[in-house]
Amino acid sequence: MSINRTLLVIAVSGIGLLSACNKALNPAATTAAVAARPASTHSLQPLPEDLRRLATFMAGNYSSAAQSKADKEYLSIELHIVAILTHLRRQQQYYFYVEQAMTNSPAEPYRQRVYRLTRTRDGHFGSSTFTLNAPKRFVGAWKNPAQHAALLALRPDSLKNRDGCDVFLSKTGDLRFQGTTDGRHCASTTSGASYTTSEVALTPQTLLTWDRGFDIFGKQKWGATKGAYVFVKED
Fold first, then answer.
1. Backbone dihedral region of 151: left (phi > 0), alpha (psi from -120 to 50 degrees) or beta?
2. Pairing label, strands 125-131, 206-214
3. Strand, coil or helix: 65
4. What whole-number distance in Å separates Cα of residue 78 and Cα of residue 65?
5. CA-to-CA distance for 16 and 228, rounded, in angstroms?
6. Rg of the Cα atoms in the chain
7. Whole-prediction pTM value?
8. pLDDT of 2 higher than 70
């Protein structure tokens, strides 16, 4: 079974993000064994080149179509993550324009963001989320970011940080990074939620994301209930 297919099977069955990545990178292990083992929080000591490696893993055009075909509770979604503001890499800051849309309506994205990837004080990694002013002018910018006027004119000080929504990432394998938001600090008002949480796992060809909203009592109000969305990199 291929790595991508293995990740899909596990995520649909509701196994945790790290366990899914472990299974994908160790195909000989049985699904039952992985499911029985608690997700490890062990992280490896990051190397100097790991920030660039993580940025390389993150960028790409993704689809959850295969997961949606296997389980109709998951929507078929396109996710595009492209590098922008590349001159800031010299300051160890990697910026990305992010656009997310239903596969059947790619010209009508429901989420547009900018991510900033940096090292944290403890030597690991943080992905900050920013909103855009007048986001409609950026629709489709992922297709040719180097030629898109609005992206070329974008400045970091024009972005609005979503306070408390940083995802803190650690290296958990030679080809794997995993992270989550911190507690209840990322505010949300969608569908009666009070806060949102995000869990993320990246491999070279796969991005797993599990975004959920909860009310003040900890009851889930939106987001997938079985497990993470599995986005497979298409290029």
1. alpha
2. unpaired
3. helix
4. 8
5. 8
6. 17
7. 0.84
8. no
Q: What is the C-alpha to C-alpha distance for residues 109 and 113, in angstroms, rounded to an integer?
A: 11
What CATH number should be reported for the domain holding residue 150? 2.40.128.590
Distance set, CA 81 to CA 85, 116, 139, 194, 233 (Å): 13, 12, 13, 27, 10
Question: Which amino acid, one-letter code, is at 72?
Answer: K
Residue 166, domain extent: 3-233
**CA dihedral of residues 52, 55, 59, 65 (deg, nearest 10):** 130
DSSP category for residue 165: -
**Other C-beta atoms within 10 Å of 103: how many?**
13
Domain count, the chain: 1
Supply the pLDDT for residue 45. 85
Q: Where are the beta strands (DSSP E) in 42-76?
A: 60-63
Integer Cα distance of 203 and 56 in angstroms: 10
Tokens 């949480």 map to which residue? 197
The mean of the pLDDT values for the chain is 86
Q: Six-digit token pair at 21?
A: 């990545």
- What is the Cα–Cα distance from 231 to 179, expressed in whole angstroms? 16
**Could you tell me how many residues make up the chain?**
235
What average pLDDT score do residues 33-58 get? 71
Mapping DSSP onto H, E and C, the string for 131-192 reads: ECCCHHHHCCHHHCHHHCHHHHCCCHHHCEECCCCCEEEEEEECCEEEEECCCCCCECCHHH
- In terms of Cβ atoms closer than 10 Å to its own Cβ (0-12, 13-18, 19+), residue 227 is buried
Structure tokens at 193: 């939620």
Range 209-227 average pLDDT? 97
- CB neighbour class for 175 (10 Å; exposed up to 12, middle 13-18, buried from 19): middle
